Amino acid sequence: MKKEMKKNYYILDTNVLRILASEFVDEHDSRKLKKVELIKQFLNKRPGQILIPDLIWTEFAAIFFQKGVSVENYEKYDLWYNNRMICMQQIKSKLVKWDAKEILTTEVVSSKKIDYYQFSKKIAAIKYQVELIEAEYKRMKDKLENQEKLKTKLENSNNNEDKSKIQQVKHDISRTKNDFNKGTKFLDGMDPMILAMSAYYATKAIDADPNGKVYIISDDVAFKKAANHVQKRQKEYGLQLQENTEWKLEVLSLHDAAKIAQRAVG
Amino acid sequence: MRDVKLRILMMDDEINSKNDNPATQALEKLKEDGHEVETTETMSKVLTSLKEKYFDVYVLDIDMSFVTDERITDATGSDIGKILKERDSMSKIVVFSARGGVQDWFTAANYHFDGYIYKGDNGVEKLSKQIEKISQEKSSVSLEFSRPKQENRVLLYYHESTPKEKIEIKTIKDLIEKYMPSAEIEECNNLKEMKKLAEKESGLGLMFHSMFKDHSETIQTLEEIMKLQPEPHMIVGINGDPSDRNAILNLVNLKPFRLIDLNQPNIPEKIENGIKDAVLWYGKDEIFEYPKEYFDLYGYPLSEEEFEAIQGTDELEGLEDELLEDEWE
User: What residues have CB less than 8 Å from B278, skipping those under 6 apart?
Assistant: First the structure.
């Protein structure tokens, strides 16, 4: 029997769609533009392997059309709306060209593999084990240290490009300190439902191809840590699917995706 | 609630002329019809206006040589229409021109302009009717990106007048098979049969004829077939003969997915690209790539401040992650 080539699938988080949108913004932050190129390079090589949960597409549209709304007068609102729609259409165009597929809530809800609502609620109200809490504290402490280290490196640099990044790093340090004080966030908002849909799809994909893997690509560091932690300890958290099926899924950051892109297509 | 029908920007190098001409007459007529119409004599103003105001419709002249445009010196109204459509696939573009040529007709079709009206021959009235038609259309904005289940039936109409030295029916069939390997091709050589075939669902339609005569029955049959779009998209190949303006513009105004000029070179390549794009955009309106020409005039659709306003609460990967990577390793 001919062995089928392994085919991986990549579920895009809302922040990845937002990164794609920043290509149409008068953006001067080279880091953001670098992220756009990174994600485009990765996805351009994987047509037919990209998945978007319908919740994520809806959430993304809501972010675009329901926040920062221009209400000065209707004429300005018309222009504002049209500009947003232009961005949405350009992202839609990319998704069409990549042959991206939607994961529908209706399919997941009606599946026998998962009790979707029960699963989502369990994640939403999860009490994390000590490993994640300690790891997260260390991560944030290390992050602050690295940011201070970076600030020093840039301040001591003679390179003009490095100097131009100092302001951004100072802003990042301030944000990290703020996050440290007010506490981190893990799987908030629609994340539990997205994880449920992804777990369902991961199991469905493996039924079709035992060698294939399903990944979520997200630029959200805390989401990655929490989701991967929950996946690894799903038995302990009582988060296996129906009939005690284990779901295999991994969350990748953009850097992780870039490293995979350097190795091989898959 | 707005109390005007449509907001229109009209671009014409004779719009401020003291002499009565079709442009000034059209301006008056559109205002009488209840539309809010602004005007400009230059192409660059159309592009810079994209930052200032949203217009429901752009009415564009082709030859803009009577007025000097300091910023854009080697373009026509067709080029501006193309940029507008590439920037915003939902924008409504109507050409109103006396001097447009064959290339402009085909550009209008292939960029899905919403009308091409010849200024002479009762043009003002026709423009008014076309704008009225646009005002009655419901918005068709959709955010669906997943491809609908594609019908594998392909309709192929190849009239005997089609120049075989330009494209043979076998080549077309091979190209269809390349992009739709499981397609079932149903072919015919007359329009009535094509219309009958088109009554059942199909994935793609291709029609090749050296020239569609300006006969009302032919136009009506074509209209009925074209109305089925975007499932299927129709690719049409004809001779772009300047003396067949009326017939060709009738076809342009039926909005084929692709209109291919059989007088031009590289016909197989154009058909292949048409089929590839029709398969990609099956069931949807085509979205073009954001334009780069004269970009400094219209820029990006969003400012940095506007984008920051929709910043999420996710903790994103930071600069330190990449710049310190070497040290961590």
Answer: B204, B232, B233, B235, B257, B258
Report angle CA A89, A92, A93 to the nearest 5 degrees. 85
Tokens of B149: 């289940």
User: Which of A20, A89, A153 to substitute to test the interface with B, most B CBs within 10 Å?
Assistant: A89
Nearest chain A residue to B91 by CA: give it.
Answer: A82
Contact B89 A89 (CB under 8 A): yes
With beta carbons less than 8 A apart as the criterion, state whether B212 and B238 touch: yes
In the sheet with A250-252, reading across from the earlier edge strand, the strands are A101-103, A50-53, A9-12, A214-217, A250-252
Closest CA to B112 of B127, B143, B134: B134
This complex has an ipTM of 0.92
Query: Which of B 123-162 lie inside 8 A of A, CB atoms?
Result: 141, 143, 145-147
- Classify residue A266 as exposed, middle or buried by CB count within 10 Å of its CB (0-12, 13-18, 19+): middle
Query: Any idea which residue has 């080029």 for tokens?
Result: B79
A180 interface with B at CB cutoff 8 Å: no
> Contacts of residue A57 in chain B, CB cutoff 8 Å?
143, 145
pLDDT, tens digit, 9 for 90 and up, residues B9-51: 999 999 999 899 999 999 999 999 999 999 999 999 999 999 9
User: How many angstroms away from the CA of B191 is the closest CA of chain A?
Assistant: 33
Peptide bond into B148 cis (omega under 30): no
What are B99-141's pLDDT values in tens digits?
A: 999 999 999 999 999 999 999 989 999 999 999 999 998 776 7
Contact (CB, 8 A) for A32 and A216: no
What does residue B112 show for φ and ψ, rounded to 5 degrees? Answer: 60, 40
* Beta-bridge mates of residue B94: B59
- Closest-CA distance of chain A to residue B44, Å: 19
DSSP 8-state code for residue B258 = E
